[in-house]
Write a structure and sequence with these properties.
single chain; alpha+beta; 10-stranded mixed sheet; FAD/NAD-bd_sf; oxidoreductase activity; D-amino-acid dehydrogenase; FAD-dep_OxRdtase
């Protein structure tokens, strides 16, 4: 069944929503994209800009149990948590832990790898079509290890990347310095993830894709959405203004806000939030100082540092807390201290830190497909850390499902019914 001529509402204008709206519009649908903010201003804006197959490795992998003793003090740079939030979301926490079992882990890595590969190929096409290839670097990124012991604990990571044929080079200190002379000589090992890409302005990329969507005839309406519904004639979206938009089909791509939004529309979603912060720094201020040329992940410091158009972007690890809990700069300050041991950061170039929310299902896979007990409402959210990277692939999978085609990859691991139920009317 073709979507040509069908009216479709896409709620949410992050990378996933914009990519989905663009793909459906290119296939002939009449698409209206809704968001309270301009495209790409929320979660899709503040990431490290990495498009890498190494992102197939979820946090809840078989090594998670061995890491728990070190998390009890809740002082780590890579992961912090609000105990009250975990207690209130115990169902999610238990299922998150259970999904670290080897059998689930293998299914997740296979599914994520297929989605990432599909997405990177589509990203490269879109960057060419939108004239934004200049934002792209093909230099990969580097995982850095300060201690021998920390590198030795990467056995599962290295085995998994090898099993999926992700090209990786093991770097010694001298090789790290040759690749990134701006780094201080404090790292004993590095893993250079090759065959990967990064962009220097994720928000601008989403804006560029949204502009392409408009050129295909798509319509963007900047408005909040109160709730959605389905009837015999199709779907409806009630806007914050009180206006109601109607369409044949509707897709929810609201990322971390999907859970609370869908609760108002009769759906229960078992999902949590991996919040993260960033701050931009001026970096090298003298001509004789070397500059970072690609993103690096200091595993011991718990941060990623990436060269952006705004400066050096310092991004923190994970903060498990309620979606709209107050900001806390504890992790960011800890990350900044560690980063200053590794590189000349310079001064902050923004007045306050940025906070982003990343939606995570217990098995670290997104929901892509038809909503439970529905005919015309679809979901595409829950991409944890890799929504920016996997938005275009998600769009391809969902568009094929909507047209009754067999997607290029197996869509079964992303079935929304894994962790979403619809309450009786």
């Amino acid at each position: 069944m073709s979507v040509t001529g069908k009216s479709i509402i896409v709620v949410g204008a992050g990378m996933v929503g914009v990519s989905t709206a663009l793909e459906l519009s290119k296939r002939g649908a009449k698409v209206t994209l809704l968001d309270k903010s301009e495209p790409g201003r929320e979660t899709s804006y503040g990431n490290a800009g990495v498009l890498a197959r190494s992102s197939l490795m979820p946090i809840n992998n078989p090594t998670l149990l061995s890491q728990l003793p070190g998390l009890i003090g809740n002082r780590g740079a890579g992961l912090r948590y609000d105990p009250w939030f975990l207690a209130a979301n115990l169902k999610w926490a238990v299922r998150f832990m259970l999904s670290s079992r080897p059998s689930v882990f293998r299914k997740t890595t296979q599914a994520l790898d297929s989605l990432i590969r599909l997405s990177i190929e589509k990203h490269l096409q879109l960057l060419d079509q939108t004239g934004m290839r200049g934002h792209l670097s093909d230099q990969g990124w580097i995982f850095l290890y300060r201690e021998q012991e920390s590198f030795e604990r990467t056995a599962l990571l290295r085995q998994t990347l090898a099993a999926h044929e992700v090209p990786v080079s093991h770097l010694r200190p001298q090789e790290i310095s040759e690749l990134e002379p701006a780094l201080m000589p404090i790292f004993k090992h590095g893993l250079w993830i090759k065959g990967s890409y990064s962009v220097n302005d994720p928000g601008a990329i989403v804006t560029g894709y949204a502009r392409r969507f408009a050129e295909t005839g798509g319509v963007f309406v900047q408005s909040g959405v109160e709730r959605i519904s389905e009837n015999d004639d199709g779907t409806e979206a009630r806007l914050s203004s009180g206006e109601t938009l109607r369409a044949d089909k509707l897709i929810v791509c609201l990322g971390p806000w999907s859970r609370n939004f869908l609760k108002q529309s009769g759906y229960d979603v078992t999902m949590a939030y991996e919040r993260g912060y960033h701050m931009h720094f001026s970096g090298a201020s003298r001509s004789d100082r070397k500059r970072l040329t690609r993103p690096v992940y200091d595993t011991g410091g718990g941060y990623v540092l990436a060269p952006m158009t705004q400066g050096l972007r310092l991004t923190t690890g994970v903060e498990l807390a309620d979606c709209d809990a107050p900001k806390s700069d504890r992790q960011l300050k800890q990350a900044e201290k560690a980063a200053r041991e590794a590189i000349f950061l310079g001064e902050p170039v923004q007045d306050e830190s940025w906070l982003g929310r990343r939606p995570t299902f217990p098995d670290s896979r997104p929901a892509i497909g038809l909503a439970p007990s529905s005919r015309n409402i679809y979901f595409a959210f829950g991409h944890q850390h890799i929504g920016f990277a996997t938005g275009p692939g998600t769009a391809l999978v969902l568009a094929d499902l909507m047209e009754g085609k067999t997607p290029a990859i197996d869509a079964a691991p992303f079935n929304p019914e894994r962790f979403i139920t619809r309450r009786a009317s």
